[in-house]
Structures
1.
Amino acid sequence: MLDKVEVSANKNQSILGDSALRTMVISNKEIEMSHAKTLDEALRYTPGIEIKPLGGSAENGSGISIQGLDPSQVLVMVDGNPVAPNSGDMVDAVDISQILIGNVESIEIVQGGASAIYGAGAMGGVVNIITKTPSNQFSFSTDISSGNWGVKSNEQATAKKSASFSAAGKVGKLSTLITTSLLNQDGFDSDPNAIGTDGWHGYKNNFSGKLEYNFNEANKLIISPNIYRSETATHTESKAINEITKERISTQSRNTLGMTYFGLFDSFHYKLHIMDQSLTEEKDSTSSDRLDQTSKNKTYNIKLDQPLQGHFISLNINHKYEYLNQYNLTEEEYVIQGKTKKSTDIALSDSLYFYSDGDFEMVPAIRFNQDENYGSHVSPMLSILYSNEHWLNGKINIRSSVTDGYKTPTLMELYWEFDHNGDIMYFGNPDLVPETSLNTQLGFEFISQDHSRLEFHIFNNEIKNLIEQQSNADLAEELEGVNTAYIFENVKKARTRGANISYQKTFNNLALNIGYSYLDAINLQTRQRLQYKSKDLLHLGLDIFSSNNTNLSLKYRFNSKQFTDVENTAFIGNYDVVDVKLNQTINKNTDWYLGIDNIFDNTPDQYSTTGGHETSGNDAYAKTPKYMYVGIKLKI
């Protein structure tokens, strides 16, 4: 059951269920009960959300798909500030498996287009991570866990280990929260007879801080440093070098510094934000070359809020600078040298409140985008909420929205070049044009007096110039020794439409969650289904609470088949996963937990449309076997 939680779906504070934009919130309690260590683990049970492999390969990490739109079209934010995407192996979206969540208070999810409010990257929706606020008193907490994949573990019994440590306190007007999250694993091998292995081995570590200085009740400064380091490797089969297993190593370094000032001048609430983010990555191609890549993002933001009687007006000005450099360490030459991109957004929105027998909220918004390469674009939006607290002994919310979506090609989509497997190469396309979309939604939500919740939403996205990765036979023929070449292309017209239905009910000692999503995703030129998009998603959850501070959670996820090529000649079949979680509170300072993920050891397999079963070739979804683990949480 979702309690009333403060959310910021229209970039001001409102109550979940009372926001004109459809917003879901995952609370800290839900995160802890799921034992999630990374953002992808926290989102995997959310109705309407599909966790996707980036770049068509699980090796590249995970991204978020909402309403059938790709991870590159979903904006990921931390405390309302965008996270710069990863760029590598045809990946240009935020790898959410790299976002360790030891300091997260809640996660907000806006489903559907929100470009007019949040900017060009929000065609599909927004995921906003809210970090914990430093406490007034000293506190310390730690969460340590360890587990393995049984006989499929690559090395020792403790094949995967994680730990997070948080300390908070206050001295005078300065409050501080420091969090360190560590993740280390030895990997797994789902098929010992195959060349190569499935799971990565190495480490992912994150250090974050939040320093908050309160000048007075209305003015405060927040400084948020974040340091991420990782080194991961996989044993990969390389056809280019006679099927010899090659250690493919990726080293990443991400540094982020954000400074935000919240102030009040006369009656104007304002926010000033500066963020500097750099990502450096060294990665092997599967053949021989090693690449060094540096991407940088700088963001400058000014936001003004003015509450008036019956209104809440917001003005947001955002300037973004992007930089991409790629150097071949083996050949000692630049692949991409000093490519840059600048853009400026100006957004104006208003929340209008009307009161009658029921309450109305209307949010008109408009955003002006100026890009140095693609000129200007205007994105309007209109969202309406009708709410009645006295309908059939409960509360009803009806939402409707129409949104113009807009996204310019990224530097990687324009210029990237990568030798993936000796005979397979990937290319950007400097002739790409911006994607645009028209998103319409209609939703119904009923909350009964016993706090059960029923939701039903339908959506439709009409997309022009959708950017998709496609094979290009002519390009491959021009390149010596290359069998397959992939390049980013604009799909002139595409459509995603569907429906989400969910139900939540809490009994005396039981909590039931059911979610089903239907998706029809079509390339309107070829009438073929879009790649890597399941038509049916089903989520089931059952939480059982006992009187001795123990709860047991059963989670079920089902994905229907999805095609892996533009011609729809190959597909990944239906697959489902069952997870079991146990949590117990020993005393006010100590909790322990254990879990089994994928208890029946199910993994997706790839097939051809002729019915032939391919035992290899499914790189899209990692064949993650059954994982068993135990952990303990301590706090003072």
Note: Confidence is low (pLDDT under 50) at residues 1-18, 238-244, 613-619.
2.
Amino acid sequence: MARRIIINGEDLDLYHDEKISFNLRVNSIADISNRNSSSSNSILIPRTGKNQRLMGFSGTIGNNSIVPYSSVRCDYIIQGTYIVVQGYLQIINTLDDSYRIAIYDGIIDFAGQLGNKVISDLDFTPENHLLDFGVFEASFNNTDGYIYALGNWGKRDTLANNAVESHGVSVYAHTIWDRIFTEAGLTYTGSFFDNNTDWLSLVLPATRGIDIIEATAGTTDEGLGSTDTITDNTNYGTYGSQFYTHEIDGLTDTYTAEFTVNGAGEIVVTNTGTMEINATITYSQVNTRVRWQCLLNGSTKQTVDLPYTSTSSPQVVSFTMLVTAGDIIKFTLQVDNPTPMGAPSPTYFTHNFSTSSAIQINTISGGSLIEVKDYMSTELTQKDFVKDILQRYGLVMIRERDNTSEYRFISMEDLLDDRVNNIDWTNKLTKIEQESYQSGYGQNNIGDYKYLSGVASTQGGILTVNNSNAPYEKNIIDAPYEIPETSVYKLATISLLTVPIWEYNEDDLIYESIETSPRLLRVIKDTGNVVFTIFGSVGTTITIDIPYLSLSDMSYQYFFDTYYANFKDLLDFYKEIDVTLDLDIVDFKQVDFGRLVYFRQTGRYYYLDTVKIQEAGATAKLIEIRNFNS
């Protein structure tokens, strides 16, 4: 069997008789860790001169190679067919005459990209805003980005205390989800994200008090400039990003009061203050991924991923940021194409695009700039946020093998319901080797949140499984969020939830901002007349639908009942079969974990768990669907 492993555009030398197997796996709904990623068995490759060079001379006396500690990008090809595109290779150990390596692909790469990044590491520049009464009220209608939903934030000592400056900002969970994928350079698909109103109403409230001052905002137009046009139409031999800098030229205003433009086409800030940038990005591209970025002193403040298109199509973006005299602002492009062309050989990656930008700048005086990231959790990791959403909604996460930067999501309920789009492997089944009946779940499978010390569980849930041979009880979901207490204060018919971002200092007789635990809550609307003040102003009555933080439909019992019904039936009569299959390399390439498998020999549909390709044939692990929607 002709096999190739390619790193840095070069083929590794392989042993001709080395047996390589590769397991395709989909993530479980309970984890996104590396045990659910596709991977090879351990592979021995010879320590030829070429391989030693590509392995950074690992194993040689006195070497300082970083390759064993790095994610080395690789492709794995069998008989001219790409099995892994832009996976990564890991050195397990070094022997006298060989390296022992393994190849990984899929979810492990995603988890590795997120690392230990927390929610406050995300760029929330698009959500930054100047807070005054009008912006506060207007946020009530927001369905993405930020919203000022009502709660008891810790400054409430009377029912009438509805001061704007004491409220915390909340960010929609779907905005955070989208930002995580965007900043990781990834895209995702799935009807769940567009159609599920349950998901679209979740928010993460602020975890500390907002520092604002009393002022009314005003803007001053500081001028309009344009960038140069950057184009490329090049085939690159190896995968990687190309970076370009847009230079400011063709100024219609010199920006002399607040900004200058240096010889490198960068904006140099003259005065400290708040700046608003409005950019119109004109572009054309063919199958190329282009990310437009605004950098402040080398740190990214705004990103725009330009949609795939072959037609020039302007994108408009507006954002606000604090600047200091001497700061440097520049506009850059990051360009790549994750899909190899010309397979199986030669392989190349095409960058074909053209972009330019018009930059309009305002300075803003007065108001209080709310930089949203300053109020998001420094405790909750992005990985835990994603994992919780997968668990909560029973989502299956599938990495698209022909586009390594795209993930597809499908709910377990939809997958187990879909008999139409099945894979018929009737003619591929060689033998059912064995049946197994232990799912790893218990009779009572518990999901729950965190609670304050001494507070009983109120929002947990139990997924019951009718298998008397299973362990009686098992914890399957420990949410990273704390459940808030319900305060004594009520507005209209809504009892306010307590999210304590303020604490009263009895020594200094002032309220101080404090850090609180992350929470995931729902926004509900209620019609009523609520009087708000700002900095002691005369109260203003708002009569539109008013958003509140809520625990409505947030219990794990709700999520189990709503999103795990078919999965529960699967576990009630759990039957796992191991089979041998007559799959060729094309079949293996086309394996889709988002579809059920059908065997006419048994008359049953199966959930596909694992497929393993070997030198001689293939094996698979499948779970029988027996008791519902036949």
Note: The two ends are 40 Å apart (CA to CA).
3.
Amino acid sequence: MPGSMHDRIIRIDLTNRKVSEQPVDEELGSYLGGMGYGTKILVDEVPPGVDPLAPENLLVLTVGPLTGTMAPMHPQSCVVTKSPLSGTILNSYAGGFLGAEIKFAGIDGLVLAGRASEWVLLLVEDGRVSFHSAEAVMGLATGETEAYMKRLFGPDVRTLSIGRAGEKAVAMASVFSETRVFGRGGAGAVLGSKRVKGIAVRGTRGLEVARPEEFAALVRENMELIRKACAEEYNLVGMFSRVGTGAGMGLVNGRGGLATRNHEYGTFAGAAEIDGFAYAKNFYTRPIACFGCPVHCGMLHTFRRHDGSDSWLRGPEYETMYSLGSDVLNGDPVALAEANQVCEEYGMDTLTAGVAVAWALEMAEEGLLREPGLALSFGDREAILGLLHKMGEREGIGDLLAEGPKRAAERLAAQAGAGVLGRAMQIKNSGFAAWMPRRMKGTGLAFATSNRGACHKRAPIGAEITGQIDMGSTEGKAVLVKEIQDRVNAIFTLISCRFHEFVTPVEVYPRLVAAATGRCVSPAEFLRLGERIWNLERLFNLGAGLGRADDGLPERCYEPIKGESSEGAVFGREEFESMLDEYYEVRGWDREGVPTEAKLRELGLASYRGLAGR
């Protein structure tokens, strides 16, 4: 039966320059695609204790069953690997057009293994792989590298690349794909460890679905839901469509939940100068869309730098407006755009990079860190940009910050005391996303228990910040967080855009999968798959040496937020530990966060019990 998956994955042995084909068998196929495929492959083949930058680590790039089809808001591709930042299993996502191109190339993904003897560029063309020298692009920025690949291989290829941060194994190095990015967790450092500077993909094959008429009807229904959402003035997806993801900054600031000055305060006086509406009003703006997306939340802006030169970029996105804006007291929209662009050029995650900068500025303020030639103070443009450059180059203080906020704080703590660690706003060394656990306690639990650390993609953010549920209460949050984590994991096997779920009932996804692939999955089975993947990730992390102690919050979360509108919000230690106990119980884990034998049998994962190493 024809279907939207090719049941074919290409494996690239970089060490020996060998390429092979892996048919997708029934067991792997039951994980549907996306992060499901990536997680299963990584857990089956990579020992949890492996050094993330060793040749034995894999980097798995996958697409899902709806990628490349008419289904709206399914453009993304997924990277799964072991993170050099957190030491956990990592899943990271990028939109744009790369995912569809991979599908049009007649494959469902790539598995990169080993380490090339010299730096290479890879061309994947209708499933065939060729190796090319990367000598001409070494040391170049991500955009320059991708422009070179388009000149070398043709303007119609879709590309991904790393910048100097990936070459230098900066722990939060990202993988960029044109105007989108696999942002979190350091996948760029893993790609750099394999000496792959970039990948170009060209696909010319068609794509079929199993039940065309049924699929087309479902797509029409879904498009109508999205159209209505985009037409509503105060619908979040509609606001994203008009001014981008920064549309909600005013709401978050007004509720005292906008992390400011290294999470010390919950409101930022300069928020209205750097939010989505400000950029739309004050800068030339053109909305751009990912493949098959009617929302076009990407906002391309032109701006004049402080040195007088003209430039452009997509973004900043909301999370960057926090990490390189409010969190470092930067209310200058041009300086924010410049900082965003520095991260893009070097290939660094703006979230963890910004969190590291905020921590460093606070430490400098207390006389604990210094960098010759930089006056390190909050809100100082030269300090912010200078620290980012030094991180990307691993120079001076930047070499410390390039390891991530937790490791940097641990090294400083050896001289200055443990208190400095409590002000590094991270979980598992991954910098906080733009939300305050003290203000939004369900989101705080989601941050703490995230398998990749401080993840905002699987949290009750919308319900808490809009007041649908009491954001300061812990009641019922353990059950809610578990349900969201399982549901989003299931949806990420399809690699749906996170915003798609904002307007699409969860029962629609199995219907789309069945019409696209011919594989019938009930809504309950679909959600159970998400739970199975979550537990597989947990077992891998336990085997890597993580445990309950890593599911905690930094010390600052136990101090009241400053600022009137934040209402002195704070997490009590016993309150948090009680939430964590309840969460583990709801998950069917023991008090140390280890899945019980009964839970693993229930999920069909009994054979993975030994993975946890305990």
Note: The mean pLDDT is 97.
4.
Amino acid sequence: MPGLVGFSGGRDWHNCSDILEKMQQAITHRSFYVNDELFAKNTVWATQSRSFVQQIPPGPVRGNSCYLWFHGELYNRRDCPITPDGRFADSQITTDAQWFLAAYENYRQSDQPWKFLHPLDAQFYAVLYDERSRKLHLINDRFGVRPLHWTIWENTLVWVSEIKALLALPGYQPTLDRDTVEDFLGIRYPLQDNSWFKGVERLPAATVLTWDEDRATIKSHRYWSWDSVSVYEKLPDRREIVEELGRMFLNAVERRCLPGERLGIPLSGGLDSRSLLAAAVGKASSPPETVTYGQANCDDLLIAPQVAKIAGAKHHWIEMNSQNWLLPRIPYLWEMDTPASIIHMQFSSLLDWVSKHRSFDIVFHGDCAGRFDGRQFFPAEDFDKYLCRQLNLDGFARSPQHHKSVRERARAYFESLGSSCYKLGLDSRTRSFISKDWRMGAVEGINVRLPWMDNQLQEYWYALYSTGEDLGGLYYLMLLNRFPKLFKELPWQKIGKPISEVVVPLGWQGDLINLQRKIWSKVERKLNLNKPASKSNNSSGDSSVLREFTDYNGWLRQEPARSLVTRLLQAPDALYPEYCNREVTLQDWENHLNGEDSFDRIGTVFTLELWLQQLFNGRYRNGIDEPIKAEW
């Protein structure tokens, strides 16, 4: 994917320009990428690969002996002071990179040189070299979704947006971080800022990492934290919360709709993507286009076209089935850098379609909306329950020791975050798991924006969460209040009915409904009538049965997945047994083929083996390099 590579040091290295060029080539995956000039000044060597489609400016941006490589977007720079005395940028500053460099120059000699970063609502990472101080800074936004990795190798600071670029360093032989592998196999993504390579770290969120070129020393500065957010002691009036949440959400979407851009929204039968479409209508330069991906007759496919029609959006459907779901994902696994379970790479179906049609340039992603329903919050004493059940460590762990190791590491990480489930969700799951969609989008030159991660929205909800009071239902009430046409009568895929039928209104009507539900619940239990309808994701001859948008359990048992998984897991030269017991894995696979549904557990080790082959043996980087023959 487009990104930054470089190093400062390398005094004993020969042909530094060749090394830098190989690093640049390692992150260049498409013909529309543009490779910038190789920059060399003192001990600093830097360059970037950028997307012509995304129109990322060439680097570095220069000014007053400063050099800036900037990847990302600033959504509110016009509202942020560019000087310590509160002045704003003039009309001569027209790009985010220009604003960033000018703000640094204005603040650099103040007592808070990085204060200009505090209010930025943004997604970015940057490398800034100040020749006057002979210091180089690695910088990212407050949530750090876009990954920038760094390491010290042979007394040299090295930074890469993709860890595979490290393979170009002289004598570098990667060693996998076993904690990261254990976390991946245990909960599907690594914890903290560990990377897959031992000794290589991901830049923490809201961080400036400073390298002193002369002293060869490193210093880290966290410029923003949740402690700076003013929290409520008591929950405000719920009507006020519903109104304020809606106002902030609309503003967040508007900030991310820029003139001349074509907007696309992956539209499911859920609420989060629908909320983005509802808010974007009238804000985007042109009507958004929507895309639904999933198997035929899934409930998403029944609901999403209705939503798009009411919103006036052109709608597309991408069918996913046993024949097309797997193979296109394999090159993305290499190109997006660092593994995400191939089972959860369904976003690639959209991107594969976009790469052919180029119907839009920007995608709105609904990540983080789910936390606004309040149900993802849990008290600190329930962390083990969250880890073992919701993240399913109990189901993924390969042995008691594996379970214990991941649990202890996760517990220590949770405690380092002040035992806050709110911080845990953003700092871990969003950055390590959901970020896979942003990374895949970057490969195809698509900007994936996350309106629900807007600074004001997140600070407001964190301030409410900190009261410890129940926030359940407020998100749904906001949707009904702001966008009744899309939410009052159309069903929610998760429950098969509109949220207007289950959400509890505010005031005396809500109190009455709660009382009625409590009484009926007691009656149901007494009469043993509480039998919820079951919902299956398995293929069925009855096309009227609602289904999940995928059937991974069934698809893994069918070709081509069945033979490919079998070949990789049974291969005598397989690499995964170094990290995961072969006998346990093969028994898991046999059990799955015999009807025990365990697609997620199989998916992690299958993904690991694919990526290890890509990394160490160069196989499968461009997909399957040999025919898949059924062995059954």
Note: Confidence is low (pLDDT under 50) at residues 529-546.
